[in-house]
Every structure is written in C-alpha cells, then in structure tokens.
C-alpha cells in the first residue's frame, strides 16, 4: 500500500509536456495585443504622458479621456482600411514630447484643447495598434486587445494617481506629476534624437 502511494507520488513529479490549448482559437493574439503599447516606445510614452495630463486637469480631464476612447478605434479602422502609410510611431514620440512638456509646465488648457490633444493621441495610438495582415479573426482579436490595452494603461495612470491623491491628500503629488512629466518629455526627446540619427 505504501509502495503504491510512493510510486504514484513520484510519478506526479516527472516532467511531462502539457497538452493545453486555448478555448477560443486565436485568443493568444488578444493577450499579446494587450501588451502592444509596450512594444512601441512612442505609444507607451504618449499614453503615460496623456494619463498624467488628464489627471492633472481633472475634472475637465474626463472629457479628454472619453475623446481618447472614441478616437482610438477610429484610428485602428483607418489603419485597417488604408494600411499604415505614414510613420505614426515617430509622430507619437513628438506627441509625447508635447504632452510631457504641458504636464511639466502645468499649462492650463481648456477642455476643448485637452480633448483635441487626447483625440489626436487616440487616433495615432489606434493607427499603430492595428496588426499586420493575417487571418481576419486573428487580426481582429489582436487589434481589440491592443485597443483595450491602451485604454487600460491610460486609466491606470490617470485613475491611479487621482485615487492616490484623494486617498492620501499628499499635496506634493502635484510637483511629483510635473517632475515625471518632464522626465517623460526628456525620454521622448532622446528617443526622437536616436530615431533621427538612425
């Protein structure tokens, strides 16, 4: 009896190949899409800077958030229809510089200008998020993942800092956000210089 138990216990420790698969074909592309923004430096910097700007301008920043959410699928649709014809990744680096500079200088933008900046960021992030040509269902799942991932990143940055400010009441967060905005701007400038130098 003990020998049988011991053999069974040892057998469970043997390494074996797993034969797992996803329940929905092509869903792996969705999960990779969620992380897409991290593979495009201009996109992640723009999302981070825009999140800082939105929380800096709350409650008016809510309009900018929704402008981004509406614009990002439009940008993806343009890319799906026309293909990626222009260097949107380079444009995103410039946009990150502009937004980071606005955060660092704490520029008082009205709601319309803020919404316009967010809409441009959404269109461009959506444009670079659409995947390369392939099977339609895989492209759709990957594209949806990329769009959702961008919105999640923006929400985490803007909402996370806003929640921290409300919960803690730390007044120095205002200065910290401006400092981080200046760092984001500086990193984007370095990336742009590296891209120009080639």
From TrEMBL:
Sorted UniProt keywords: Membrane, Signal, Transmembrane, Transmembrane helix
Signal sequence coordinates: 1-18
A Pfam family that the UniProt record links to this protein: HupE_UreJ
Residues spanning the membrane: 32-54, 63-82, 88-105, 112-130, 136-163, 175-196
Species whose genome carries this gene: Paracoccus aestuariivivens
Protein name (Swiss-Prot/TrEMBL): Hydantoin utilization protein A
Keyword Transmembrane: yes
């Amino acid at each position: 009896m003990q020998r049988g138990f011991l053999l069974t216990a040892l057998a469970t420790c043997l390494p074996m190949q797993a034969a797992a698969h996803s329940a929905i074909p092509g869903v792996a592309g969705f999960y990779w899409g969620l992380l897409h923004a991290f593979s495009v430096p201009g996109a992640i910097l723009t999302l981070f800077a825009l999140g800082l700007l939105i929380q800096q301008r709350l409650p008016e920043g809510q309009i900018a958030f929704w402008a981004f959410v509406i614009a990002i699928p439009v940008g993806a649709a343009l890319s799906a229809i026309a293909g990626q014809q222009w260097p949107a990744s380079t444009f995103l680096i410039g946009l990150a510089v502009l937004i980071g500079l606005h955060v660092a200088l704490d520029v008082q933008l009205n709601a319309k200008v803020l919404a316009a900046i967010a809409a441009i960021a959404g269109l461009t992030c959506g444009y670079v998020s659409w995947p390369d040509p392939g099977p339609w269902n895989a492209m759709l799942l990957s594209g949806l993942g990329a769009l959702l991932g961008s919105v999640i990143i923006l929400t985490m940055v803007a909402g996370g800092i806003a929640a921290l400010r409300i919960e803690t009441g730390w007044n120095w967060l205002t200065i910290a956000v401006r400092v981080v905005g200046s760092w984001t701007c500086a990193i984007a400038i370095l990336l742009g210089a590296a891209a120009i130098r080639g």
